[in-house]
Amino acid sequence: MQEILPPADIAPTRLHAAMRYAVLGGGKRIRPLLACAAGELADAPLERSLIAGAAVELVHAYSLVHDDLPCMDDDVLRRGKPTCHVEYDEATALLVGDALQSLAFQVLADYRLNEDPTVQLEMTRILAAAAGSRGMAGGQAIDLDAIGKQLGALELEFMHMHKTGAVIRAALQLGVRCGRLLDPAESQRIDHFAKCIGLAFQVVDDVLDAESNTATLGKTAGKDARSDKPTYVSALGAAGAKDLARELRADAMQAIAAFGRRGARLGQLADFIVVRQF
């Protein structure tokens, strides 16, 4: 990420400094780690998986910058430091998100990630779809429309499979495509794992928002309840949400069991996602 992001001393310096501020120095890097772990299953060269993971992380970082804006979630803290629009200004933060998103697709075009150009083109399509109106952006629109409403578990699943899960699924799909072609059964197992772990990630986030503190989270705790947003905690209770996260983890582990030791890294990441604090 240090190498891919434009240096802060190249014009426009303020924009480039803000881009680096938004991406570097914090974050769990779950999505690029998932891309690398999926790449291992397909015998992908690590340098290719890292580039694919970086592209996904740029999309994720852009979404956080825009998500924190006053017109969205209006938050002032992210990854333990002031959000991008607070540290700089709203206009700069808007441009940072735009620039990070376009940089993600530039990265996918600049580097050779698969010997077959049609596969690399498919990787671009996968990430674009995951970030668009039928993926992350669409999930955010549903989320905004749901404020003040009580959603059931199935409605929450539909929303978060788009808002959070789509880009997580894309991370694994891009990682796999940096290596050899998997057979249909293997691909199906990977995708089921991705669906389970993407949803579990959001369930755990909802629990942590309700039970953890701002210092631990690195972002404002309790904001979902204050904003009257429907969450898995509001729908199922904290205990029910924790049970669901564990069930999703178990389902994810079952999906990759046939990979044996080759799936160990994915299993470790599933554990990290679900048992971050509980």
Low-pLDDT segments: none
Shape: globular
Annotation field: number of helices: 14
Helical fraction: 55-70%
How is the topology of this model organized?
Elements (H helix, E strand, L loop, with lengths): L12 H11 L6 H12 L4 H22 L9 E2 L2 E2 L1 H4 L2 H21 L6 H15 L4 H10 L7 H11 L1 H12 L7 H28 L2 H4 L5 H4 L5 H25 L7 H11 L4
Antiparallel strand pairs: 1-2
Helix pairs in contact: 1-5, 2-3, 2-9, 2-14, 3-5, 3-9, 6-9, 7-8, 9-10, 10-13, 13-14
Protein model, in words:
By secondary structure, this protein is mainly α. It has one domain (13-274): Farnesyl Diphosphate Synthase, CATH 1.10.600.10. It has 14 helices and two strands; from the N terminus they run αααββααααααααααα. α3 (46-67) packs antiparallel against α9.
Properties at a glance:
single chain, 278 residues, mainly alpha, Farnesyl Diphosphate Synthase, two-stranded antiparallel sheet, 14 helices, 1% strand
Summarize the structure.
The chain has 278 residues and is mainly α. Helices cover 68% and strands 1% of the residues.
